[in-house]
Design goal:
single chain; alpha+beta; five-stranded antiparallel β-sheet; four-stranded antiparallel β-sheet; 9 strands
């Protein structure tokens, strides 16, 4: 009898709750239908008959790291380094190099040599520091102004033997550089595509022990007062008063400076 009485009392309550749930749009606070659920479209594998590549591609970034000759990091703290001395050490190790990760214009090299005498004309920008590798130690992030509104971005980490290792080096016509967590985000000019820009995120790759471009996209450019983009392209940096020599043609990839 007790069981039957409980059933009799619960039945009207369950019916009332069910009616509320089914009513859908009864008023504020009630459940409402979101409409029909769109059909999920799964990925489609194109040309499945194509054979896989037989040659293993080179790992991207395998040649992008290098120990900076003659530079020691006191106590493993990159904040104690002289940024200009770091770049000068690389120039000394790779003289007359105009392309690749070590490439700098002749004009930039001359300006580097005169940084003590003419600090206002020194091409090495204010250094930034951030733990990019996740090891609890800050890395050094440098920007080097180059002719034709180019900016070289280089990142360095302290080595276990007390030295300094460059883990990233790239050059481009930079619109802006940002740090998002441990990623370096570069916005650069899209050559031949007015109104668009490249946006590249560089992230630490533990396997390569280097910063690699993990996300790359082309997006519509939205100029702002902070980062104006001239009609012919180029970033916010003022152009160098001198052009590069005809033989100097540094190649590069983008990188950043951020706090």
């Amino acid at each position: 009898m007790i069981r039957n009485r409980r059933t009799a009392l619960l039945a009207p309550l369950l019916i009332a709750v069910g009616a509320l749930l089914l009513s859908g749009c009864g008023g504020a606070g009630h459940l409402e239908s979101s409409g029909a659920t769109p059909t999920a479209i799964g990925p489609i594998h194109l040309w499945p008959e194509l054979p896989p590549a037989t040659a293993t591609p080179n790992d991207y970034g395998q040649t992008d790291t290098e120990q900076v000759p003659g530079i020691k990091v006191p106590g493993g703290d990159v904040r104690k380094l002289n940024p200009v001395a770091v770049v000068q050490a690389e120039v000394k190790a790779h003289p007359n190099t105009y392309s690749g990760a070590d490439g700098l214009y002749d004009e930039t090299v001359r300006q580097l040599a005169a940084c003590k005498q003419k600090p206002a004309g020194c091409p090495v920008l204010k250094p930034y520091y951030r733990d990019l590798t996740g090891d609890g130690k800050d890395e050094l992030i440098l920007g080097i102004r180059m002719p034709d509104q180019n900016l070289a971005v280089r990142c360095y980490m302290p080595a276990k033997d007390g030295g300094l290792i460059r883990i990233m080096s790239t050059v481009d016509q930079i619109i802006s550089v940002d740090l998002a967590g441990s990623d370096v985000i570069l916005r650069s000019v899209s050559a031949g595509m007015p109104g668009y820009e490249y946006r590249t995120a560089w992230s630490w790759d533990d396997h390569q022990q280097a910063m690699l471009p993990t996300r790359d996209e082309i997006v519509r450019n939205k100029p702002s007062g902070k980062h104006p983009v001239p009609p012919g392209g180029g970033g916010p940096l003022a152009p160098s008063p001198k052009k590069k020599p005809p033989t100097a043609s540094p190649s590069a990839t983008p990188t950043a400076d951020a706090p």
